[in-house]
Amino acid sequence: MIRYESDRSNINNYFYRQTDENLTFPAHIHDSFEFLYCFEGEILLSADAKEYLLHGGEAALLFPSVVHSYDTPTHSRTVLFVFSASYIHTFYESYKLKTALSPVFSFAPHEDAVRILADPETDFYRIKSCLYLVLSELVRHTEFTDCDIRSRDLSAKILSYIKENFTEQPSLKELARQIGYSYNYVSGCFKNIFHTNFSKLVNGYRIGLAQSLLADSADTVISIAAACGYDSPQSFNRNFLHVTGMTPTEYRARQEAMKKVTHLQ
């Protein structure tokens, strides 16, 4: 199951940061850039069906709409940033039709920049300057190749279609009809891009939205199930448990407990 993080997608000047010990996070996708720095230990990054083992002092930069996940074999201490293309507009315009042959590069000499990015008090312009330093090191350490423009365009159309139709009964056949491509072409490209099937990606979008609503709203579980496109609370509970390992009620209780701990600190 791939979680489609709509709350991290297509938001101007969006910037999110988190620090972790032993980060493990399942496959997910969003329309923002993602920068990960490993302070110590090792962390396994899976991106676009390829695996990379990052060690202390190494970083990775992921472009939008790339399926990726993290796993810590033994121990890792990391910091992760998710940010919109508006922070790096010049780079984005120059490289939006490019693909990095490897997203991993050394960044140890510039660890102070990582700490500046991790500071919640850092202002917009300093964030931009640090991000451009990240991009400079990425360009120095890796080669780029032209991306498949048609495939990237199709990826954007698929994600847009899911966001607009997830409460109905979206289908790959209907998407193909709407955009004027053959079903066989769209189906083949879909598997190559997302490495899953269409129904699992739609379900991942619904569950990701449900997690946001459970954490940030007082809506009932029944109303959230309906808002996320589920015909019954039972179906919603079953899918939510399968993806997250807990029921919606348990997830909301955990989020509320975490907020209380953060507030007390």
Keywords:
11 strands; about 260 residues; single chain; nine-stranded mixed β-sheet; alpha+beta; two-stranded antiparallel ribbon
Give a structural overview:
By secondary structure, this protein is an alpha+beta fold. The protein has helices at residues 89-95, 111-118, 124-141, 149-165, 172-179, 183-194, 198-216, 221-227, 233-244, 248-264; strands at 3-4, 15-21, 25-29, 33-47, 50-55, 58-62, 68-71, 76-83, 98-100, 104-106, 144-146. Strands 1, 2, 3, 4, 5, 6, 7, 8 and 10 form a nine-stranded mixed beta sheet that branches. The protein has a two-stranded antiparallel ribbon with strand order 9-11. 31% of the residues are buried.
What's the number of helices?
Answer: 10
Question: Shape, please?
Answer: globular
The proportion of residues forming helix, as a percent range, comes to 40-55%
Q: What is the end-to-end distance?
A: 34 Å
Task: Provide the structure class.
Answer: alpha+beta
Backbone CA Rg: 19 Å
Strand elements, count? 11
Given as residue ranges, the uncertain stretches (5+ residues, pLDDT < 50) are none
Give the topology string: H per helix, E per strand.
Answer: EEEEEEEEHEEHHEHHHHHHH
Provide the residue-averaged pLDDT: 90
Q: How would a textbook summarize the main sheet?
A: 9 strands, mixed
Strand content: 15-25%
